[in-house]
């Protein structure tokens, strides 16, 4: 078996990447695929928050955390403040690639937005994707975005940054779709694929993380 890697990035923090990752994992398992999830860098562990634990709760899939930092900050900032050395982002590529040997799909959840620094040398998810591809691992991106005002700009900027490095996103996911969407949200749902040229895969109902496994 030689699986593929899909990196789940967001237009910012708090847009719903964790629930989007859980939803993608759940859907893949329903389709009969074997799935693993990786969180290369988890910050904010001192607050008791843990994306890996949430994904595990929602889906039951195997989740791997590679680096943990206590303060809820960008990883490079949290590492500098703690006075600790963290791996260069390319060092995460081999353990992630190794998981493709036993899984059809390996989902990698980023931290914050696409260009958040995951190490103290300025490495980002783009550099991780480059390292995976250089090692022969099929790698692509999904972009999680917000529903409300500002999302068109943030999403276009994220997609432009991906394309500038040679990556065409597989699709967009609205990370939290309100139960009673307003005019802006309804228009954005139509406009997001129009202005980016990237298909909208689905929207996740608001509050689904407070319930059982997403479908």
Number of DSSP helical runs? 7
The number of domains is: 1
Q: Mind describing the biggest β-sheet? A: 7 strands, parallel
N-to-C SSE string, H for helix and E for strand: EHEHEHHEHEHEHE
Percentage of residues in helical conformation: 25-40%
Pairing-aware structural class of the strands and helices?
Answer: alpha/beta
Q: What integer is the average pLDDT?
A: 92
Please state the overall shape, judged from the principal axes of the Cα atoms. globular
The second-level CATH architecture is: 3-Layer(aba) Sandwich
Question: What are the segments in which pLDDT stays under 50 over at least 5 consecutive residues?
Answer: 210-215
Our Rg estimate from Cα atoms comes to 16 Å
CATH topology-level name: Rossmann fold
Overall strand count: 7
CATH class: Alpha Beta
Strand order of the largest sheet: 3-2-4-1-5-6-7
Strand content: 15-25%
Q: State the CATH superfamily name.
A: P-loop containing nucleotide triphosphate hydrolases
Structure description:
The chain has helices at residues 17-30, 51-59, 75-82, 93-99, 125-134, 151-164, 183-196, and strands at 4-10, 35-42, 62-68, 105-113, 139-145, 171-177, 200-205. The protein is an alpha/beta fold and 215 residues long. The protein has one domain (4-205): Rossmann fold. The chain has a 7-stranded parallel β-sheet with strand order 3-2-4-1-5-6-7, with helices on both faces. The radius of gyration is 16 Å and the shape is globular. The model is unreliable at 210-215 (pLDDT under 50).
